[in-house]
Amino acid sequence: MFEGRKCLVIGSGVSGQGAVSLLGHMGADILLFDGGDKITQEELEGRVPRGVQAGCYVGQVPGEVLEQIDVAVLSPGVPVDSPLVTELKSRGVRVIGEIELGFLAERGRVAAITGTNGKTTTTTLVGEIMKAHLGQDKVFVVGNIGNPYTLEAEKTTPDTVTVGEISSFQLETVESFRPNVSAILNITPDHLNRHHTMEAYVEAKERIAMCQGPEDICVLNYENAYTRDFGGRCPARAVYFSSARELAEGYFLRGEEICLARDGQVRALLNIHRDMNLVGLCNVENVMAAIAIATGMGVPLDTILGAVRVFHAVEHRIEYVATKRGVAYYNDSKGTNPDAAIQGIRAMSRPTVLIGGGYDKESEFDQWIESFEGKVQWLVLIGQTREKIAQCARDHGFERVRMADTYEECLRLCTQLARPGDAVLLSPACASWGMFPNYETRGQIFKDYVNGLEE
């Protein structure tokens, strides 16, 4: 498929390194490029996986080299409308991403999950359910969750399952990617600095089902206008879940029970308080989606529900850290957009000191501020967006805003403002870039600080 073809991998992070590794096993003639201004030639060469030969270019690729390229493999962080990618497309070069490349080597079945929020929790839970069904060595959890598909694809066999968390960035470059079961958990405004319009963002998300057929399944949120509308156009069989109404067919919340309606019969599956370790309505939706996905993959309900009962929160997603001096601390660093951060606030049952702010993805914060509803006592802001958010808060009549110049100052300020019985919630509604390399680092520093506080 790629043997002897000259392939340019753009981006040298873990995704790019995985692509180089897989292309090497496929016999491709590989070039690795990184346009960053902080990486040296020596460092780039050091990122080439052992046993693989690849030419390396930092800063720019010479024109005479571009003329030789057959296929370009983009890392997710590389915009499809960047000058280099635009030039490659104008030359007739095939442009794909890591998910497409991994799928071309896939030999097993695939479940793929996208959505603005809830992807990581749902993907992790589906992975645990599949492992309970098939065994640890038969399941690969890959994609945006942090484990490149390209590092696992060659290990797959006809009796393995790959569970993928797939971002909108990754979906922009799929061509033949066809999961047996796909899911779009929700779509709300995010990454508009990358996609430019909401229409383009929605179209990217919908591409997860682009190659599916009527024998495949697409799990959709009935309470999200975008996903509900897509169900009428989806090429796969749509299976809905709802947290707000009872469905004639599908999964829904009735009181405290998650129920399944099928063929005119309704069955209560589990109690969201007794049988779940996750908090918040967002996680009820994630669990319903995971049950639907796993059922679509052929897992018995008893196995699914057993795995749900022992599953705990994913790190950095409404994660309880500790209680110090009567104050409960929660790490929701993965709340990187306003809608995700709204779910974090809704999960709190105490008066809350909220940490917000970070990198500006051109989000609007009005609905986030409106969700405070007397629960948020103080808003402590950091990062690039702090002035924008502070003004939005004032416009909505919320005046209890404090600014911090550094993360450390922010954390100290929160401990001063919080009273016994309160919660401190890190749920920034913004990406971490600028102050931190990723949301995991932001969350880990928060956890280290909290765990270091005196009792």
Explain what this protein looks like in three dimensions.
It is a single chain. This protein is α/β, with parallel strands linked by helices and 455 residues long. The chain has 17 helices and 20 strands. The protein has a nine-stranded mixed sheet, with helices on both faces. α15 links the parallel β18 and β19. The longest helix has 16 residues. The mean pLDDT is 94.
Key features of this structure:
455 residues, alpha/beta, six-stranded mixed beta sheet, 17 helices, 20 strands, 22% strand, globular
Compact description:
With 455 residues, the protein is an alpha/beta fold. The protein contains 17 helices and 20 strands. It is globular and about 65 Å long.
Binned strand content? 15-25%
Assembly of the depicted chains? single chain
State the distance separating the first and last CA atoms.
Answer: 60 Å
Radius of gyration: 23 Å
Largest sheet: 9 strands, mixed
> DSSP helix count?
17
Low-confidence stretches: none
- Overall helicity: 25-40%
The structural class is alpha/beta
The strands making up the biggest β-sheet line up spatially as 7-8-6-9-10-11-12-13-14
Arithmetic mean of pLDDT: 94
Q: Would you report the number of β strands? A: 20
Principal-axis shape equals globular
